[in-house]
Amino acid sequence: MAVSDHVNLKKFVAGVKRRNPGETEFHQAVFEVASNVFEYISDKEIYHQTQILRRIAEPDRIIIFRVCWEDDNGNIRVNRGYRVQNNNAIGPYKGGIRFHPSVNLSILKFLAFEQTFKNSLTGLPMGGGKGGADFNPKGKSDNEVMRFCQSFMTELHRHIGADIDVPAGDIGVGAREIGFLFGQYKRLSNRFTGVLTGKGMEFGGSPIRTEATGYGTVYMMEDMLKHRGENMDGRVCLVSGAGNVATYAVEKLNQLGAKVVTMSDSSGFIYDKDGIDAEKLAYIIDLKTNRREGLSEYAAEYKVDFFAGERPWRIPCNLAFPCATQNEISANEALLLINNGCIGVSEGANMPTDQDGIEHFIAAKLLFAPSKAANAGGVAISGLEMSQNSARITWKEAELQNLLREIMANIHEQCVTYGQQPGSDYINYVKGANIAGFIKVADAMVAYGVV
Ligand code: NDP
Ligand code: 2IT
Fold first, then answer.
1. Is the model's pLDDT at 8 over the cut of 90?
2. Is the shortest distance between the CB of 137 and ligand 1 below 6 Å?
3. Distance from residue 74's CA to the centre of ligand 2 (Å)
4. For atom 4 of ligand 1, which residue has the closest CA?
5. 188: which residues sit within 8 A by CB, 6+ positions away?
6. In a 10 Å sphere around its CB, with 0-12 CB exposed, 13-18 middle and 19+ buried, how is residue 290 labelled?
7. Stretch 357-383: mean pLDDT, rounded?
């Protein structure tokens, strides 16, 4: 990067920090994109003139609201709900809803910012948004979750719509919550439209939406290996998380002949040296979606080690798939992975590796697929759920399986095109994804003039 680009980047980042004090996750996400984009746009005056990056890093609007609900003991509870509508240059705002006690403005702004580039990479017409609440679904009854979802949607419904903003699931929001949210939207608006994705198959859902994120994350690794003339067969893999993304990443890894030895949740991780096969995975899905309990139960059932309060990255492996949450791989853990022989990381979660960790992976020339490329399969099938809803038809599962595979291969290609390092055969997928994702959004914004 030229010295003048460095200076501009520093000034830009300082401005973002000044305008968004204390929002560390948002700063982190903006820095990661800006550090690649500044170099790319250095000789492209139009993007400077029109202040495109500055505009993308300022959400179109943010809605913050009180969510009041009654628990099973008759107590009145109050939470805070949000929707960050980051950018709709290339389509309606699109992105998940997260229910987790850690949810705050910084986390949702980083997620909405990332989503803008991710959605662009899918090639489908979707802008970027994200929402959620600091509500903790753990330990709540189904009725409490229903009442919370109904109250949350009672405000949110004014701000969303099939052509305006289409939310979906994320941490703490799965099939059960989407059902409650959609039911309340329908009741309030008297409209049956594709206003949410991840819906049940009985009410407008799409085949393979549940599997798409996890499968896509593994396809991205498969394509990176293929590009180097290698494959997945027999690879020892670490997976973190035990939710939607993690479980379907494990399913696809098993189908492709890899061996998954860890999964994790907020209580710790399990290390199963024999591999988490299809039968054991079915146990985990039941444990997490029906019984809603911790992974120590798995350790007791299958007599394997459970490490309370720890993350899996110190276990030797060939490949790693962080699929739980942001900043779950620190710089030291990145070094541990590299030194223990890991050759590839594909991020199922959003921003799971911190900035120094990313730099270690790139310096060590790992196959490293950043989240906005690696986990785009989920929102891609959400985009196709929107298409099916508009046309009032449901496509066949086989068609969607093929489309998901093609979309992930296309994202891989875009990363290669923009991430090829000059004078080397190394592909910097972070740079590739940031630049490819940026171009389409930026060019649409330029076309609209100053808005
Ligand atoms: P789920 O709620 O289904 O699962 C999340 C998993 O991660 C759970 O096992 C949870 O543990 C664990 N986890 C959550 N927070 C923490 C934490 N702070 N520390 C340790 N473990 C934690 O969510 P998803 O699988 O949907 O989402 C996982 C990641 O993937 C998120 O980063 C999300 O943004 C991203 N993502 C999701 C997509 C989707 O389609 N769902 C699409 C693209 C990205 P526990 O079981 O104990 O709660
Ligand atoms: O981070 C993500 O891409 C998601 N949580 C899925 C978004 C969506 O609209 O399907």
1. no
2. no
3. 34
4. 243
5. 153, 154, 157
6. exposed
7. 98
Angstrom CA distances, 444 to 87, 152, 270, 421, 435, stand at 11, 32, 46, 27, 15
Measured in degrees and rounded to the nearest 5, phi and psi for residue 244 equal -55, -50
Q: Over the range 403-429, which residues count as b (16 or more CB within 10 Å of their CB) and which as e?
A: bbbebbeebbebbbebbeeeeeeebbb
Residue 96 C-alpha to ligand 2 middle, in angstroms? 4
Catalytic site residue 303?
no
Kindly provide the residue ranges of all beta strands, DSSP E only, lying in 109-228, ordered along the sequence: 128-133, 165-168
Q: Which of 130, 280, 372, 431 is catalytic?
A: 130
**Is residue 3 scored above 80 in pLDDT?**
no
Number of neighbours of residue 438 by Cβ within 10 angstroms = 25
**pLDDT one-digit tens code per residue, 310-361:** 999 999 999 999 999 999 999 999 999 999 999 999 999 999 999 999 999 9
Tokens of 282: 């079915």
Name the closest-CA residue to atom 4, ligand 2: 96
State the pLDDT at residue 432. Answer: 98
Residue 118 alpha carbon, nearest atom of ligand 1 = 43
Residue 236 has pLDDT above 80, yes or no: yes
Q: In order of start, what are the domains of the chain with their CATH numbers?
A: 3-56 (no CATH), 61-191 (3.40.50.10860), 210-369 (3.40.50.720)
